[in-house]
Design brief:
Helices cover 74% and strands 0% of the residues. The protein has one domain. The relative contact order is 0.21. The longest helix is centred in the last third of the chain and has 29 residues. Helix 1 runs antiparallel to helix 10, helix 1 crosses helix 12 and helix 6 runs antiparallel to helix 13. The two termini are 22 Å apart. The radius of gyration is 19 Å and the shape is globular. It has 305 residues and is mainly alpha-helical.
Length: 305
């Protein structure tokens, strides 16, 4: 599939999951809902792989790496983020999570020796700053002398855990493991780990039969998990973890745009400036290097992207 289509699909689907997630809150504990979500997604993916005759037999070492991907990407980061939302607003969660683009650049250099791209780094800074402007009232209201400091720390930890999951996926792809199968097993492991965590922390495994919960669960499992993670992780293997993760900066912008229609949200002038910076950073990160040759040194410079 075309890289631009993969990127657009990732941004639009995950940007829309913010609204679907709000419909999950209420009867069922959010962390238990995460276990349900990835269990359903794993069943769908495994059934699809089996139906298409995809190879599903892997060695213990590969399963350990797929379990690691599941632990960090489909379990731990979600659990920590859900706990963090009890202390800070969703806007601040969005701002902190957008820094995954920077974490991916750093960890890509540490674990894989991936050269740091000047364009991706500048674009990430622009995007994070732009997102901070969009949520400026919530950023300014942050008081590090109360429980918000704990929430902020948890958001940072959750973002780092998600970045580790990205690195595990990058490693799996570099070692020839296909995205669909690793996602199928990874989501199964993630669902199991989340269920174990839920049981250990005394959360009730109940079900909500309301229409809103059911359709939002199916949307999150099928679109938000199977399709979006498939597109995103394929993108990660194709253009690199740092550039792929920039999509995280755009998710809240898409979510707020949907809120204009669904929830009567109005962009303030400052939020519009922030959105423009996010889009500008997006262009800088994703455009081909020849369009930004001015970023290269005239003599002896290494390729920046």
């Amino acid at each position: 599939m075309n890289t631009a289509v993969l990127y657009l699909a990732t941004v639009l689907i995950w940007g829309s999951t913010w609204y679907a997630i709000t419909l999950q809150l209420g009867v069922v504990d959010p962390v238990v809902s995460v276990a349900y979500r990835f269990a359903i997604a794993a069943v769908i993916l495994m059934a699809w792989c089996a139906g298409r005759g995809k190879p599903m037999r892997y060695g213990m070492r590969d399963h350990m790496w797929m379990a690691g991907q599941g632990m960090f990407l489909f379990c731990a980061n979600y659990a920590v983020f859900y706990i963090a939302t009890g202390y800070v607003t969703s806007g601040l969660v969005s701002v902190v999570f957008s820094t995954i683009a920077a974490w991916n650049i750093v960890f890509g250099l540490i674990f894989f020796g991936t050269p740091v791209s000047a364009r991706a780094s500048i674009g990430a800074v622009l995007g994070i700053f732009g997102l901070s402007l969009i949520f400026l009232p919530e950023v300014k209201a942050l008081d590090l002398h109360d429980e918000a400091a704990l929430g902020l720390a948890l958001c940072v930890i959750a973002t780092i855990l998600a970045s580790f999951g990205n690195m595990a996926s990058a490693r799996n792809q570099k070692n020839g493991l296909p995205v669909l199968q690793t996602n199928a097993f990874g989501m199964a492991y993630g669902a199991a780990f989340t269920a174990i965590f839920s049981a250990a922390t005394g959360r009730d495994f109940i079900w909500d039969t309301s229409f809103d919960y059911l359709w939002s669960m199916l949307y999150l499992a099928m679109f938000g998990s199977v399709l979006a993670f498939g597109a995103y992780l394929t993108l990660l293997g194709r253009i690199g973890a740092g550039r792929a993760a920039y999509a995280a900066v755009l998710f809240p912008v898409v979510a707020l745009s949907l809120s204009v229609v669904l929830e009567d949200y109005t962009f303030t002038p400052l939020a519009l400036v922030g959105a423009a910076l996010v889009l500008g950073g997006n262009i800088l990160v994703l455009a081909k290097a020849r369009h930004f040759s001015w970023l290269k040194r005239k003599k002896g410079a290494a390729t920046l992207s």
